[in-house]
Design a protein that fits this description.
Helices cover about 45% and strands about 20% of the residues. The chain has helices spanning about 30-45, 65-85, 95-105, and strands at about 5-10, 10-15, 25-30, 90. The chain starts with 5 loop residues before the first strand and ends with a helix.
């Protein structure tokens, strides 16, 4: 059984989650709005070039070393952002407990 319903509360996305027995009895809240905003800002900083295919090595679609390093730095920042979102997620037994935890974090 898959749970497709997601609830939004004060910038968090609250969804049903699996417990250690494989049952969907837990609720997990993740900082969704802030994550999307930060990720889109990082994606805008990436250098994107036109791609002509696998056999093309022209200067239009080939990245320089500096551009490659810049993009890899942005990718590592995105990975750390994803990990921080996972660490900052809240798991509780009920949705009401999740909302109370979010309220206590905002104070």
């Amino acid at each position: 059984m898959k749970w497709d319903k997601a609830y939004h509360y004060k910038g968090y996305k609250i969804e049903k989650d699996f417990d250690h027995n494989g049952r969907m009895t837990l609720w997990t809240a993740k900082p969704h709005d802030e994550f999307l905003k930060k990720r889109s800002e990082l994606e805008k900083q990436k250098i994107v070039k036109a791609w002509h295919g696998n056999e093309c090595f022209c200067s239009e679609c080939t990245y320089t070393e500096q551009e490659g390093e810049h993009n890899s730095k942005i990718d590592s920042n995105i990975r750390s952002l994803i990990l921080s979102m996972k660490v900052n997620s809240i798991t509780c037994n009920t949705m009401k407990e999740c909302k109370a935890e979010i309220d206590s974090l905002e104070k």
